[in-house]
Amino acid sequence: MSNRVCIKKGLSTLTGVKFVGKQGHPNDFSMCVRSKTTSAQYVASRFRDPTFEKLMENYKNLFKVIAIQDLILANPKNPSVSIDFLSKLSQKLHLNRGATAFLRKFPHIFHIYYDPSKLKPFCRLTDAALDVSRQEAVAINASLPVVVERLVRILSMSASKVVPLRAVFKVWKELGLPDDFEDSIISANSGVFQLCDAPEANTHLLKLVGGVSSNGLRAAVEDWRVVECCKDECSVDRMEMQFSFKHGYPPGMRLSKNFKAKVKEWQRLPYVGPYEVVSEKKKSKAGMMAMEKRAVSIVHEFLSLTVEKMVEVEKISQFRKWLGIDLNIRDLFLDHPGIFYLSTKGKRHTVFLREAYERGCLIEPNPVYDARRRLLDLVVLGRRGLPAINSKLQDTSSCNEVGQEENQQRHDSLPS
To answer: What is the per-residue pLDDT across 283-330, written as a single tens digit (0 to 9) for each?
Structure first.
């Protein structure tokens, strides 16, 4: 898998690349050496997992809902936002049919009302959505010690014990950090974390204080190995277990014998764990393969530390240099489809830790995930569950409010 192993579906050739293994069956997958394949072609040729694709289809709307929710909650004294303001942001928020049409799709989350004093329609959160927001805030505050450990672990995977603060800002929601984490986490734990200036202007680095030891840290995959070894029917050969990772493939994904042999060989390959220090990078073939496996272990551990065991590729790429990953991180996910799943839904590349999910849900949920899942359930609910009469009344009311706004704008534009 170090020679840019790629998975191929239903094609026999791909721009000068020769495929090895069985061909002809639409679900047969075989190994190939990526000599002239572009990254975009590699992404396009990946096997689609219907469970994760369906989940991401729902997340597409959830991300937009969260963006609007954050705008509403930005003003705690009057948690609302005008429809006019949201309409101006429609393109930025990817609201293709406009703000009003999008808000009406989710009446369990948003309530549109008309403010007679301002002569404008506004939007606020429903009681159900506010309850979910409070639940998430309570869960985050209750998990502050866990959040501190997550940051310590991420810093411990860096050889210099340093990461840029801007990179942490990119993943603060994924790590379950409170929105004031600079004060409530970093400043409140000055014996653990330290902010220092970076060579670049207006840039800060987050550093792990020298006295904090990372010797006792154990990667999540090692916990899986312990549990797996204790099982009577172990799925992995015990000789391979010392360096192996859990692999899983979706139904319908047929693997060639060559692919299975390569995975088996890769599982036995020794490597340096994410919290261990690398003495020097060997340029031999075996050394390069071991460094690639170390990179897999680092991103595996990073995903294990996130609340939902998923993150955007662009966000985790911010840590690549600081965690000592010299490979294209997106290709790394595609090279190991049994460990990770990459989705391109919603104009973003999102990677999931495959082993953490079953039927589109986390196997081991946490309180913050439970709150966010409630919001996702409201998104999936859409307009269902509303009485037909109330639904029609709300549509009529919303149309009247927007119509009043348009009439007022026309009246204001007339010459006096």
So the answer is: 778 888 889 999 999 999 999 999 999 999 999 999 999 999 988 999
DSSP helix/strand/coil, 160: coil
Distance of CA 402 to the CA centre of its chain: 36
State how far the Cα of 401 lies from the Cα of 123, in Å rounded to an integer. Answer: 11
Whether 240 has a pLDDT exceeding 80, the answer reads no
Burial of 251 (0-12, 13-18, 19+ CB in 10 A): exposed
In whole angstroms, give the CA distance from residue 272 to residue 254: 31
Contact criterion met (CB below 8 Å) for 82 and 72: no
Looking at the DSSP assignment, which residues form a beta bridge with residue 310?
A: 352
pLDDT digits (tens, 9 = 90+) for 140-198: 999 999 999 999 999 999 999 999 999 999 999 999 999 999 999 999 999 999 999 88
Can you give the pLDDT at residue 279?
Answer: 75
Give the tokens for residue 201. Answer: 């202007």
Helices 285-305 and 144-156 pack at an angle, to 10 degrees, of 170
383/108 Cα distance (integer angstroms): 7
N-to-C CA span, the chain: 75
Which structure tokens are listed for 128?
């159900």
Backbone angles phi, psi at 385, to 5 degrees: 90, 0
Higher model confidence: residue 3 or residue 221? 221
Strand partners, 123: 81, 112
DSSP E strands in 191-267: the ranges are 193-197, 204-208, 254-255
Q: Residue 43: which of 16, 70, 6 has the closest Cα?
A: 6
Task: Output 282 or 256, whichever has higher pLDDT.
Answer: 256
**pTM of this prediction exceeds 0.90:** no
Q: How many other C-beta atoms can be found within 10 angstroms of the C-beta atom of residue 349?
A: 17
Q: Is the dihedral of CA 230, 235, 240, 246 positive or negative?
A: negative
Taking only the tens place, the pLDDT of each residue in 278-295 is 877 777 788 888 899 999
Residue 373 to residue 132: CA distance in whole angstroms: 9
